[in-house]
């Protein structure tokens, strides 16, 4: 079944990887983000902040780590100390206690050179002597490579630039982000929060600054006092203590006018008089220009709108982000975190919630109350347990399941997954074009609508930072990154860890090989052989990637699956029903649970190998009087990835045929009696207890097979119910034990007649068999009576084809006439018109014969059974014994004549298996 949760401890390089902080107390992963493609190789990169790192001996100056994406794969873990310029690089803060990289983000392409850039915030920096005014740093991407480390002090306008906070205590850089292209000039812009700004004289009202990108170049530093509307503008808070700019983000295009918008938050605001309920503001982009400043109290629905938190102390907007297009309507949406929402009025612990607001091209009012979200205009994602603080960080996830609709990721860093207190949990909610209810409980995520990601160890706080990662492994599917700042990598307390979880497209199973459907129908006749429950020639297995945005099937000889399940959903005859598969040499293990009716295939193997094994799945029912209600058999593949790991359910419906008709005895001439004849009657439409005359056989409802010579006893025994040549149709084997092939009296002959979907003549002679429609198997020596018994016995050698056994009860191995049996392996390569048993060599079959023991020695098993040379009889009766040891392959049953005289003088008849 699809993974409804995934443990980060299971990251193995194939499904994602772990990124370990360097030193104790660094808090690596305090913030994590997609970096865009900063080295110009066409693959997305990552940036991770460690604000308490000590670069160049400067305590808490902070470090940022850029990890380059790669299509060559990743190890299960990466130590940030191994970054060397080729796989990534380090960005060093400038001064002690700056907390550089307190916030980190992709910046988009700010300088218009076609390569993505980065932005890093240092809220405690002291530019121009202004204590804690804060700084932000833009680092330009480059296709010319990077050194192992970059000191932010070396930014000079050509490799990046510094943005200085204005006044002491402004805390510029508490949050930084790409802003999209808000002025519609074709170049990306930036937005930065500064919560300490006293906008319009309101203490702690906060502000956000938008800096427009430019292809005309930048100076080494930018003073925000110079923003004038042409190069950027300031967004001013209006409520004292509201802390505008605590979280800022590009919003995408939420009003559908083709221009990117912004979202900024003031989580300590008191909308509608509710203290610290929080407020969020959407500022619409425009190609008509901006003034030097924008007062958010002037948003009126045409230039943007306010989003009001609901209750006292919700802190709505603690985290905000563009959500991408989660409802598939072609317009971008928003997500807002409110981590402090109480579990109940009597329980102060914070469950938290997140709100998704749908974009619209129908316009917005000046304000929107989150309490009005009803499923049509957005929905709420509710926290699960007290103290989880769901929504402390929220982000777009990109499209992690490859369905073409954007997804979401939400952190709940104080959740207790797997009993690990505050290990943290993150929730991925899949986007959908089928609509959402007004609320979503993350505990209902089941793998089809999203999944949970569990932190590893107690107190790690996994999910305190979350982000879409872009496509870091180059498979065309978006990935995720999650920060756990308090994790202890390699025993380094609070060194911090980050986790990358790869996106994945679910595998696909098509039981009939038709692109229009994945299902199949089969028909089973009670008390007969197993029936294939797939199209054994056309079943296909596939897995996918999205290179270049085009869904592409992976190479079936290299891409792998982890397992598959086949289940009888309505097991009406209990343990009498069975499913079987033949793994052969694939390395896949097949295990059947008879009590549950579940066949489980396990083992990492290629798509081609799983396809090979699934093509051999058969159903049987050994009940004496089976319930003939149609059975439903469900197939599911598992590719072993973190999520979206299972295929859609493929279904086979097995119907039960009627019993065979009663056939009246024909009238035959004395000459016909000598050669004998075998008659096959179709039973598809015959009713129980009906009477059928052989004179009616016309090739459509059945056919007659005639022997070749007088006295050969053609048709003494007839067997079938197996596909010997792999064409999807059952075949027949017919005995003529007194035939004289090659003038060898009573050597005997067995005839194999191939089933066919192209029709069989109403009258077929054994002499007409030419290798294409069947073939003859003559006995080896005079009086062998080969073919006295014969049967198609299932798949003994694990190649997916049924095999054949022929008994020759008077054959002589040592001049003793004790009998032999011959196993001929099925094959989908052509057969000659006559098959020579002397050519059996182990690869195409083998010979069975008993061992003659001295008189008085016990004979208690097949290998050492003894016989009297005078009586013979081994191979008198041969047949399949089914799979009696549960290894997935058929065993044999062989019988001797009654009253066989054993060497010790006892008389006996035996069956050997």
Automatic annotation (TrEMBL):
<dbReference type="GO" id="GO:0007155">
    <property type="term" value="P:cell adhesion"/>
</dbReference>
<dbReference type="InterPro" id="IPR000413">
    <property type="entry name" value="Integrin_alpha"/>
</dbReference>
<keyword id="KW-0378">Hydrolase</keyword>
<dbReference type="Pfam" id="PF01839">
    <property type="entry name" value="FG-GAP"/>
</dbReference>
<dbReference type="InterPro" id="IPR028994">
    <property type="entry name" value="Integrin_alpha_N"/>
</dbReference>
<dbReference type="InterPro" id="IPR013517">
    <property type="entry name" value="FG-GAP"/>
</dbReference>
<keyword id="KW-0325">Glycoprotein</keyword>
<protein>
    <recommendedName>
        <fullName>VCBS repeat-containing protein</fullName>
    </recommendedName>
</protein>
<dbReference type="GO" id="GO:0008305">
    <property type="term" value="C:integrin complex"/>
</dbReference>
<dbReference type="InterPro" id="IPR013519">
    <property type="entry name" value="Int_alpha_beta-p"/>
</dbReference>
<dbReference type="GO" id="GO:0016787">
    <property type="term" value="F:hydrolase activity"/>
</dbReference>
<feature type="region of interest" description="Disordered">
    <location>
        <begin position="878"/>
        <end position="913"/>
    </location>
</feature>
<keyword id="KW-0677">Repeat</keyword>
<keyword id="KW-0732">Signal</keyword>
